[in-house]
């Protein structure tokens, strides 16, 4: 029996197969299939990409409205201390809500604002929170953007900027990408950067993956 190739991924939201409404719109991050889910290699989440479906009412269920003790959504104007400019610090939260954040064990980086916009009305912004992401191990075929490191015979299918590959070939391409970025870091910054992970310094949006179905 040959070696089993698997990798750990992170997914914000449900692991169930989802209908992809933006399929076929031709942009870089458009899904390669009508059904499936997006995910990230463990430890390499690009949070900007989460914003495309972070509406608490989205079927991905990756976030929720933060509510006060009366069950009311919290207006963002009231949530932040008007005398503190840094909204990514616990010091920036109004003292009225600090105990709520602590009680629910909410990380500051998981807090964001979302507008409950209704046509004809002035937008109102409320506080939302990303749910704890799901970590899962996967071994099947996978879509990625790493075709630059693969030979044509290793690519199962192509759709726009995506290529579908086996997990063995994905891991090879992923490690090759890290190696090439590290060489770039060393060239720019010197040998002192050899031990640093280049994925911590370069954009990681191209490392997103798409999985048609988790069995």
Overall description:
This protein has 2 domains: 7-54 and 134-211, no CATH class; 63-130, no CATH class. It contains 3 helices and 11 strands. It has helices at residues 76-79, 95-103, 167-189, and strands at residues 7-11, 18-19, 35-41, 63-65, 111-115, 125-130, 134-138, 142-144, 157-159, 162-165, 209-211. The strands form 3 sheets. Strands 1, 2, 3, 7 and 11 form a 5-stranded antiparallel beta sheet that branches. Strands 4-6-5 form a 3-stranded antiparallel beta sheet. Strand 9 (157-159) and strand 10 form a beta hairpin. The chain is globular and about 60 Å long.
Quickly describe the structure.
The chain is an alpha+beta fold and 215 residues long.
Main attributes?
215 residues; alpha+beta; five-stranded antiparallel sheet; three-stranded antiparallel sheet; 3 helices; 11 strands; 21% strand; globular
User: What composes the largest sheet?
Assistant: 5 strands, antiparallel
End-to-end CA span? 21 Å
How do the helices and strands follow one another from N- to C-terminus?
A: EEEEHHEEEEEEHE
Number of helices: 3
Q: Could you say which structural class the secondary elements and strand pairing correspond to? A: alpha+beta
Radius of gyration: 20 Å
Give the helix level as a range of percent. Answer: 10-25%
Strand content: 15-25%
């Amino acid at each position: 029996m040959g070696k089993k190739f698997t990798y750990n991924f992170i997914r914000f939201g449900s692991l169930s197969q989802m209908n992809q409404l933006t399929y076929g719109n031709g942009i870089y991050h458009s899904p390669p299939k009508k059904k499936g889910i997006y995910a990230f290699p463990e430890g390499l989440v690009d949070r900007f990409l989460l914003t495309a479906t972070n509406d608490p009412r989205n079927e991905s269920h990756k976030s929720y409205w933060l509510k006060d003790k009366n069950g009311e959504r919290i207006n963002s104007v009231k949530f932040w201390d008007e005398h503190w400019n840094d909204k990514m610090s616990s010091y920036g939260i109004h003292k009225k809500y600090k105990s709520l954040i602590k009680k629910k064990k909410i990380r500051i980086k998981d807090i964001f604002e979302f507008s409950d916009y209704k046509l004809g009305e002035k937008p109102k912004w409320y506080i939302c929170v990303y749910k704890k992401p799901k970590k899962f191990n996967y071994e099947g075929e996978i879509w990625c953007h790493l075709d630059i490191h693969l030979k044509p015979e290793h690519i199962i299918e192509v759709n726009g900027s995506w290529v579908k590959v086996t997990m063995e070939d994905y891991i090879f391409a992923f490690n090759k990408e890290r190696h090439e970025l590290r060489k770039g870091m060393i060239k720019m910054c010197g040998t002192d950067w050899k031990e640093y992970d280049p994925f911590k310094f370069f954009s990681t949006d191209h490392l997103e993956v798409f999985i048609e179905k988790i069995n």
